[in-house]
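Trying the structure run again after the queue cleared.
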Amino acid sequence: MDQLIYQHSEPITLESGVVLPSFHLQYTTYGTLNERKDNVVWVFHALTASSEAADWWPGLVGDQKVFDPQNHFIICANMPGSHYGSSYPLDTDPDTGAPYYHDFPLFTLRDMVLTYQKLRAHLGIDKIWLGIGGSMGGMQLLEWAIMEPARFENIIPIGTNAKHSPWGVALNASQRMAIESDCTWASRTADAGHNGMKVARSIALLSYRDYTAYNKTQKGFSPESEGKPVDQQVFRAETYQRYQGEKLAKRFNAFSYYALSRSMDSHDVGRNRGGVEKALQTIEARTLIIGIFTDILFPPDEQLFLSQHIKDAEVHIINSMYGHDGFLLEFEAIEKLITRFLTPKF
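Done. Tokens:
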């Protein structure tokens, strides 16, 4: 595994019209590019993940996994705006000499792909054998497959959509409102909005799982409540929500969380392309689409829609008690589908 920084020192123009004099991407690679340069696997990460794909997708990326560094050259770039090494809100704004904070420009999904295209050229890669990503990662993958239809041989978008739904936007807006309600959010300091982000994460979790998942895993009271009077007992579901907020707060910042949720909301592959259906029809890569029956954030109808408009796309909806989080946890089922998809058919 190699962790590297790509520094792009020429200006790029974002969809908003903002011109950035430069940007940088933190990216991680596993394995070696072969002589034919036809073993590239490009992994796209989700909202709060990093470029270290083997850490958050250990069931799919790693030695003797379906994407094996012994056979593949695996690349994962940290998306712009994220906390993990790429250009982000705590970087210095060249116009002011101080961190961007609230003034960090919006990177749409299309803008993110523009930065990845620069990295691809820097690495001397022409064809990408396979692109894969779940959730916000799948959004980036679809964007790139439309921007450059001949670039990918195979794509596997998981638990994602062609345009972020009003439901998804409402959930993200509620999370941003939680951050905005933090009395520290207005300050221009690195830890501004920290407690608000904990609440935002709690809101997000409700869309990552569902009623059934909580009913199976978070029943009753926390172990610390055992034997205490009823007015001192705390529900396991409550401690779980608080724990997840605290856990994220130890590794992320509110500015990145806020910015990336806005980036997700910008997702619309049909923007300035004649509509979503027309845009999807331009994809040339062999396509395997995977959804999850219990996903309430990106429900199966969204993956079925993709399959109806991407030529010859294959679609599978898997069963999972984990809802949207199934794209991270149901790696055995996902691996089987990927292996079957990639096995030559005679």
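The CA atoms of residues 207 and 297 lie 5 Å apart. Worth checking whether this holds up in the mutant runs.
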